[in-house]
Design a protein that fits this description.
6-stranded parallel β-sheet; Arc Repressor Mutant, subunit A; 219 residues; alpha/beta
Length: 219
């Protein structure tokens, strides 16, 4: 796996590089500005890019805008965004078009090395990894939406875990239920969110997108 890191905090940037190289991963470049990150992505053609949300020069949304631009240039590029705290508008801006190969984690998650590496590999493989705290706050904002009100409390739990990027088996373990129960809940979620019985993976992605888009719409 080839990686580009865009992080203006030198300690975190180099710490991430050391951690990933120790895991046998190829850190092709580390950069401290959005422009240099985009240049490095063009030059090195990484499998995944890691972006800080707030970067120079204004330390507002340059990182997220660079991540969106990187995806525009290379739709197949996996992107993992790191943020010091939950920034809902930035999360939904990045995630509202497609959740495939995208992650949004709080920086504190990096310290939980096994969780962070699991999320990194999942995103690089085309999956999703949204920080549980981000999901919780988005879900709180989205509860006024009529379609989401159709969901039972357990179905809301399942959808929130789907948004984190967990598969059926992991959801079953987290909720201490059977795989068949999770499958039943997901079928019900699809029906209540008016998602047609097309491709199962597409409907799963569509359910998460509906959830994120409606969370943004209530903000």
């Amino acid at each position: 796996m080839r990686i580009v890191i865009a992080e203006d905090d030198a300690l975190l940037r180099e710490g991430l590089a050391l951690l990933l190289r120790a895991e046998g991963l190829d850190v092709a470049a580390t950069t401290e500005t959005p422009d240099r990150a985009l240049d490095a992505i063009d030059d090195h053609k990484p499998d995944i890019a890691i972006f800080d949300v707030r970067m120079p020069p204004t330390h507002t949304d340059e990182g997220i805008r660079a991540a969106v631009e990187a995806r525009r240039r290379r739709p197949d590029l996996a992107v993992l965004v790191l943020s010091a705290y939950v920034e809902q508008s930035f999360a939904t801006e990045l995630l509202s078009n497609s959740v495939k190969g995208l992650g949004y984690l709080l920086k504190e998650r990096v310290g939980r090395v096994a969780e962070f590496l699991d999320a990194l590999h999942r995103v690089a493989a085309g999956g999703t990894a949204i920080d549980p705290e981000v999901v919780a706050q988005l879900f709180t904002r989205s509860r006024r939406d009529n379609r989401l009100k159709r969901l039972s409390p357990r179905e809301r739990d399942v959808l929130a875990l789907m948004a984190e990027g967990l598969g059926n088996g992991a959801i079953a373990q987290r909720l201490v239920v059977t795989d068949s129960a999770v499958h039943k809940h997901i079928r019900s979620i699809f029906a209540k969110l008016d998602l047609s019985p097309a491709d199962q993976v597409d409907r799963r992605v569509a359910a998460v997108l509906r959830y994120l888009e409606e969370a943004r719409g209530t903000g």
